[in-house]
Design goal:
Layout (H helix, E strand, L loop, with lengths): L18 H4 L5 H8 L3 H7 L16
Amino acid sequence: MKMIIKHEDGRKEVAVTDIEGLVPKNHLLRKIDRSVNWNKIYEIVEDLYSPNMGRPSIDPV
């Protein structure tokens, strides 16, 4: 007679993590983030967003 082995269902597991923990401290994108003036992006796109029309906007940065 064959024995059936029932495995635990891994879909019920939850893992909590954050971006800071996923991206290494010396990653190129971190260096770029520190070097770029992201506030300039808001100035460039501010006329494309309406404060009172449609759904709330998604942050462009």
